[in-house]
Amino acid sequence: MRKSANRVRITAQLIDAQTDAHLWAEQYDRVLEDVFALQDEITMHVIGAIEPSVRKAEIDRVRRQRPNNLNAYDLVLRSLPFLFPQRPQDAAGAIPLLENAVKLQPDYGAAHAFLGWCLHTRFAFGEKREEDRIAAIQHAHAAIACGSDDATALAVAAYVVAYDAHDTATALQLFDRALELSSSNVFALSMSAMTLAWMGRAEIAVERAERAMRLSPFDPYNFRSRHALAIVCFHRRQYGAAVDAARDAIRHNPKFGIARAVLAASLLRLGRAEEAKAAGRDLLECEPSFTIAGRSRTAGFQPAVFAPFAEAWREIGLPE
Q1: What predicted TM-score, i.e. pTM, was given to this entire model?
Q2: pLDDT of the residue at 127
């Protein structure tokens, strides 16, 4: 840390102590007015920035291990890259890893949470099998019971409870609890932002989405924050901004089909029907099982929010 008059420059660096490998570094220039407020601000930025770097380093570490050395934690780490695209075929790669993790450690909250998330993915974006939906909810509740002090486990469980059980009251309580435990947790911020956006709670959805992107701008999971902004902008009839946010979400995760659905609806309302239809075709290529009724079963919390999307999708000609 260096100080000049009323300005301070703080440089933070994260090094792997075993290998001396450089993982992350950042520099912060601030006016030194309230030292405690500055300390809190820097702490939040550092936590938000290093978490995805640590996560990636841990995933890379466990990939280098021989499979017969894996424990429950390592199995969860191996599953994480399969979770990012949120496609049934990717979830299929994670489910056996997470099932083994739960067998090794039945009270592992994060393993239950991520397994519930994978089963949700298979239900929501795949064959719509009722047994997957029920199992997803069961593992979400197991995560809540086992992981009451794990912000990520609570946030992922909240997401599953919201979309598969439509118990939004419990989901919001869990998101709030996760953020009490870790106010910079990108899963809690981005997943709650997306859920709140579908609920029509626009202001708090935008606040959490923007906080997630500000605190952890390079986290790959933050495409949900951008998707949340697209939903809110469409609901507010700010269709140009919705197009920009949806394209930003797609750029960060090209395999996330529902972002293409929001893009298609937004383009249609801008009067760009041909582009909207092209986006609809891209959606069906990305998510062949997409139907309006199927999406209603997961994201249809609030008819006033969902109905305008459904109407636009019908005009485009997407499957009912």
Answers
A1: 0.82
A2: 83
